Amino acid sequence: RKPAHIAAVVRRPTGHDLTDWKQEVDFVGHKAPLVVSRFNPLLFWRPKKETKAADEASPSPSGAKKSKEMRAGDVLSCCAIAGQDNNVSVWLTTRPKALFIVKDLFEQDVLDLAWSPDGLTLLL
User: CA 102 to CA 86: how far, in whole Å?
Assistant: First the structure.
């Protein structure tokens, strides 16, 4: 059996109990150890009504007030991950599979990633 290379998203505790760390989701799919990950500086939200374009999240600056129609489950984060397999994958925290994977673009490990301040550009 081949080893699994997993990026685990862990929610830090809030309030007075600082021991209540919870694993939220696993990003599974790279074929070699992971080297770097970066979360997008923006939070995204999905409209309440599901459509064919529902997988395309609408950006919303962090801290912006949302309409009353939104539920807490509609807010999501976007994360880019790169590893020793020379691939970059981009994930939404509400999806079990990568949003997309960039393969065969690099000859060596990807060592750093950065999102632009507006959250619309990923620098490799």
Answer: 9
Higher pLDDT: 86 or 66? It is 86
Calpha distance 61→17 (Å, rounded): 29
C-alpha count within 13 angstroms, C-beta hemisphere, residue 103:
6
Nearest to 71 by CA among 40, 93, 98, 49: 49
Cα–Cα distance measured from residue 114 to residue 103, given in angstroms and rounded to the nearest whole number: 18
Strand partners, 123: 114
More confident residue, 4 or 109: 109
Instruction: Indicate the pTM of the whole model.
Output: 0.68
Place of tokens 């990026």: 7
Q: What is the pLDDT at residue 69? A: 47
Q: How confident is the model at residue 66 (pLDDT cuts 50, 70, 90)?
A: very low
Nearest to 60 by CA among 80, 79, 46: 46
